[in-house]
Design goal:
Layout lengths: L4 E7 L6 H14 L4 E7 H4 L5 H18 L6 E5 L4 H10 L5 H6 L1 H9 L8 H4 L1 H11 L4 E3 L5 H18 L8 E3 L29 H9 L20 H9 L3 H13 L4 H26 L3 H29 L7
Parallel strand pairs: 1-2, 2-3, 4-5
Helix pairs in contact: 3-13, 4-8, 4-14, 8-9, 10-13, 11-13
């Protein structure tokens, strides 16, 4: 297609939500018409801290979300991580290129260990998942990976592994990649503090009903000191304005609302009403497409099967190059 091979994906720990839409799905929709894009359902990675029955169930849920937002299987290779065994074999070889100490220093890993309260009871697969990510990225010769700012250290570690492998091989076989970080930061939950996430229980799913959207917006934090309409209001840290910045395309309209709110004379109910209209307009067609797709789960799984077959072909080529460089191709 054009210049970049893009690899992106989601851990199959639950349906996708508005935070995913802003953080990655919007980019993926743009990329599918410009680049060769691989979309991975990271079920094997999800097993590091999620029950297998949940992971299995959510493969279909995430696939439905992908298709419902408009990701076209004719333009993207959508595949299931665990069904591409070449990735596991690459991970095994890459494990020799990184130390435990380096993995423990990875800022993303350190923060997630803290959040999950693993302390020293860290599953080995969880500690080593930067190596698994390196295998996922390099298997498809991805030159760009859309990630949140907190995931940038993972890309850095991937490139360290690439450089070490190429040095060992004596030639450039694997490609370094770069992080594509969205301009819009992570969305907060309705309280304006914790980021929106399934684990925090503060997410608005892309399949949310009209009533769920209404209740979500009503519960959103604005400014605790904005007690009367005429009181000057605070825009910074106001969750409603954070969402309006993300979802209202008319920037001048949002700027005008902010100016009126700061000056005083604009009710919280008014800005929430504007936001609810935007979210209802955004989610309704996604929800409807998702409901229609869910009527034929076998068709969705067939899309994943075909994408996984294509992904295996590409990953197998890279694996063969890696094994040849390591002189492990005895019967070639």
């Amino acid at each position: 297609m054009t210049s970049h091979i893009i690899l992106t994906g989601d851990r199959t720990t639950g349906p996708l939500h508005l935070g995913h839409f802003v953080g990655s799905l919007q980019n993926r929709l743009a990329f599918q018409d410009k680049h060769t894009q691989f979309l991975m359902l990271a079920d094997a990675q999800a097993l590091t801290d999620t029950d297998h029955d949940v992971v299995h169930r959510n493969v279909l849920e995430v696939a439905l979300d992908y298709l419902a937002v408009g990701l076209d299987p004719a333009k993207n290779t959508i595949f299931i991580q665990s069904q591409v065994p070449e990735l596991s074999e690459l991970t095994y070889y890459f494990m020799n290129l990184v130390t435990v100490a380096r993995l423990e220093r990875n800022p993303t890993v350190k923060e997630e260990i803290r959040q999950k309260n693993f302390q020293r009871d860290i599953p080995a697969g969880f500690l080593a998942y930067p190596v698994s990510q390196a295998a996922d990225i390099t298997a498809f010769k991805a030159t760009a990976v859309p990630v949140g700012a907190d995931q940038a250290p993972m890309i850095e570690q991937t490139n360290e592994i690439v450089r070490r492998f190429n040095t060992q091989a004596g030639k450039d076989i694997l490609l370094e990649t770069r992080a594509i970080i969205p301009q819009t930061g992570r969305l907060p939950g309705p309280d304006g503090k914790a980021k929106m996430s399934k684990s925090q229980g503060n997410a608005l799913h892309l399949s949310a009903s009209p009533d769920e959207i209404t209740q979500f917006v009503k519960s959103m934090y604005t400014d605790s000191k904005h007690l009367k309409i005429n009181d000057p209001g605070q825009v910074s840290g106001n969750a409603v304005f954070t969402f309006l910045d993300a979802f209202e395309p008319d920037i001048s309209f949002v700027d005008d609302l902010k100016a009126k709110y700061r000056k005083g004379g604009l009710a919280d109910s008014v800005i929430k009403q504007h936001l609810e209209v935007r979210l209802q307009e955004l989610i309704e067609p996604i929800r409807n497409r998702r409901l229609e797709l869910a009527k034929d789960p076998a068709h969705v799984m067939q899309i994943l099967k075909a994408g996984t077959a294509r992904a295996r072909t590409v990953a197998a080529t890279t694996l063969a190059e890696v094994k040849s460089a390591l002189e492990l191709d005895y019967f070639s």
